[in-house]
Amino acid sequence: MASTSKNASTRNTVFGVVRTQLLRVCREHQRDFNTEIHLDSSLIADLGLDSLSLVEAVVAIEQAFGIERLPLEALNEERAEAYFTVGSLVDLCIRHAAVRIDANEGMRT
Hints:
Blueprint: H1 2-29, H2 51-65, H3 86-96, E1 101-102, E2 107-108
Antiparallel strand pairs: 1-2
């Protein structure tokens, strides 16, 4: 049970960082962006990211977590309904993080 709550806490922490970076990029490219970002939000359909803004967001997320390179092709391997969603990006970050994420602080340790 403690492991499940720790996993949920880690996922929430990672989601917070991913959400912050996505909001920043979306607002830079769409001045009137005011869409709520959820785990099931589509990066393309819901957030309106194009190839350039998606790359910009991914680079910012990689830097935030110390990930050398997120293999975006792995998003294609996810379930069809989860294809290119915020949640699939969060899960990808968790699987490829080069550092342990402290769920309480949201900082690299």
